[in-house]
Amino acid sequence: MKRIVRFMLLLSVCLSLLAYIASSSNTCPANLEAKCGDDSSDDWKGEFFPDIPKIKYEGPTSKNPLAYKWYNAEEVILGKKMKDWFRFSVAFWHTFRGTGADPFGAPTKSWPWEDGTNSVAMAKRRMRAHFEFINKLGVNRWCFHDRDIAPDANTLSETNANLDQVVELAKELQEGTDIRPLWGTAQLFLHPRYMHGAATSSELGVYAYAAAQVKKALEVTHYLGGENYVFWGGREGYQTLLNTDMKKELDHLAAFLQAAVDYKKKIGFKGTLLIEPKPQEPTKHQYDWDAATSFAFLQKYGLTGEFKLNIECNHATLSGHSCHHELETSRINGLLGNIDANTGDPQIGWDTDQFLTDIAEATLVMLSVVRNGGLAPGGFNFDAKLRRESTDVEDLFIAHISGMDTLARGLRNVAKLIEDGSLTELVRKRYQSFDSEIGALIEAGKGDFETLEKKAMEWGEPAVSSGKQELAEMLFQSAM
Fold first, then answer.
1. Where do the DSSP E strands lie in 199-306?
2. Residue 85: CA atoms inside 13 Å, Cβ hemisphere, count?
3. Which residues have a catalytic role annotated?
4. Which of 11, 46, 111, 371 is the most buried (most CB within 10 A)?
5. How far from the centroid of its chain's Cα atoms is residue 56's Cα?
């Protein structure tokens, strides 16, 4: 009998100790059944990824899927730490609001911390999961749409109040860290009010509502220490010109962007304003079709000094260009501000937002970034989502690790190309005929036709050298 009593006392002590440990810990399993306190409360603090360690660099020989093989944040390449070349960012909407749904299928993802509601409490729990994710991934930037981080309500003032609550939590979670938004933006495409566009809507009330929404999004981005603000005009375009006054819509869009510039300066926001080009989808034609179209628009309306471009690789594909083309078009015009790092499937005709895993494409991307001297205050935002069939929590980490490693390999390849110098020399030699007195006149804008005609008569039929495309491709591939 005494043995039983002693056993029961010992068991009671053990259970009490376990209860104390559990109550003193700020973590619990990432599922709603765990009942870590009141799971519907604002201060639910579960460990959302209890089986995922902090991701570390282990080198190219590592077989660990939860480790970096090529991205070594502190390693210096071409005079900068890798983390400073990339300034990686997590896209809140794809990573924490992506459901796996597509035009032909229902959602496939159900993360264990989700309760199926669109409540403020759920938004706060999701924000906590987001911060644990980026901390474990080892990045210090994130991007968001206003309506992705906080739910819409019946009125604009109620919606703003919801946003304020979630933003206040994000501010609290940022305290004591170097985590800040790479950029924020307003979601001006999902709600039915924006079916005709936002800044280009035919309805004045919609234009005003969109302005109010951007005003608030600029304020919260500034409050959180955001470094940039993005405009993506998903609905700023048309389905048919038969019912569209294109000039009026473009004029309205320019006025809207100018008002954003004015308000940015009024509140003291020092971040860069970015425009994200896209050709179509959801509208038939969007007004910021590609980098060149966007540049022409900015020039026409006197906005080139106020905006840069956020280039998304998958959007480049849809516009009929390569990502490298869009980056170079932006770079040479002084407009390269940020990159949404993703890619599309060449066999699928829509914006699939896949993580970039093509090493050759990543090398071309990094060629432009290195030539640009980096992207700061912009960076690389993973505007990419898991495939519909990838449903494990660890897949969120694996996808980002793969994307970061791919771009890191691209940077390392660029360093090889620069060190070798052969590709640079090939390009130099191709244009060396302009390294002459007449060539200098032309490049200075002083090559008049009369002088050039005289030289053409003197020189006779010009010799045309080989472009050496195959050699250029060989030299590029040698760095892979």
1. 228-231, 237-238, 272-275, 285-286
2. 28
3. 145
4. 46
5. 22
